[in-house]
Design brief:
GO terms for molecular function: FAD binding; oxidoreductase activity. With 264 residues, the protein is of the alpha+beta class. 33% of the residues lie in helices and 25% in strands.
């Protein structure tokens, strides 16, 4: 790796100040993407700001169906939460199949969202849960937060502090995993509340995670897998690579949605 200056901070304010003072600083949360990228010499931040010791970024709060999760909370901690399992089984399920044990015990909610990998699991969840992203500056709706591949609405000196949402009545998540990386070639999160159904899709869209609105409308009328029969997605809007063609992924979305519904 190239030379970098390491900073261990104890508060969000301290981290924000360093971001403003340093030329090309990078934030380190779980480090599951940043550190391998630095080792491969694809990133060379002048300063590395470690958020791992900021207690204010950690923890899970569940009050009735209102949920708030600190950005520094690991995937394993979310999966282990009995409160999350009780009010949002879909999120509990998702965090149990995310990456591998090492990733789940080191990677964090905020780090994953800030990176916004097109094959990451959380983007589908925050869209389906209609979540709010809390930052050091403001609150951002999930649909406005996710901008494109590896791109979010975060400003250069802005840090994710927490994610909040109202737990749905029913939820489920299913993904088709890349056999090597375990990333989602297609992941679908389904959430049903009293008045709406939301379907978030990750790993398949050419522009990143998206809501499958046609499925939402059909499931609002009949919340069962048969409601998805006859629905299709435009392959021209799907991702195509050596792991699967756009047509293959378009079909995967419907298959994974049916499986997510079965869990919900």
């Amino acid at each position: 790796m190239y030379s970098t200056t390491y900073h261990r901070v104890s508060s969000v304010d301290e981290a924000v100040k360093l971001l403003g003072d340093c030329d090309e600083a990078a934030l380190l949360s779980g480090g599951q993407t940043l550190l391998p990228t630095m080792k491969a010499r694809l990133a060379a931040p002048s300063d590395l700001i470690d958020l791992g010791r900021i207690d204010a970024l950690k923890g899970i709060s569940v009050d009735g169906r209102s949920v708030k999760i600190g950005a520094g909370t690991t995937h394993a901690e979310i999966h282990a939460s009995k409160e999350i399992a009780a009010v949002c089984p879909g999120l509990h399920e998702m965090t149990g199949v995310l990456g591998d044990p090492a990733v789940r015990h080191m990677g964090t909610l905020g780090g994953s969202l800030a990176n916004n990998d097109p094959a990451a699991d959380y983007p589908a969840a925050i869209l389906a849960l209609d979540a709010t992203i809390h930052t050091s500056k403001r609150e951002i709706e999930a649909g406005q937060f996710l901008v494109g591949l590896f791109e979010t609405a975060l400003e250069d000196d802005e840090i994710i502090t927490a994610v909040s949402f109202e737990a749905p009545e029913r939820s489920g998540y299913e993904k088709f995993r890349n056999p090597a990386s375990r990333y989602a070639m297609c992941g679908v999160f389904v959430a049903k509340s009293a008045e709406t159904v939301r379907v978030g899709v990750t790993g398949a869209g050419g522009d990143g995670a998206f809501r499958w609105e046609a499925a939402e409308e059909a499931l609002a009328q009949r919340f069962e897998a048969s409601a998805l029969e006859g629905l299709s997605l435009d392959p021209s809007e799907m991702l195509g690579d050596l792991h699967g063609s756009p047509e293959y992924r378009a079909n995967l979305v419907r298959v994974m949605a049916k499986r997510a519904l079965a869990k919900a």
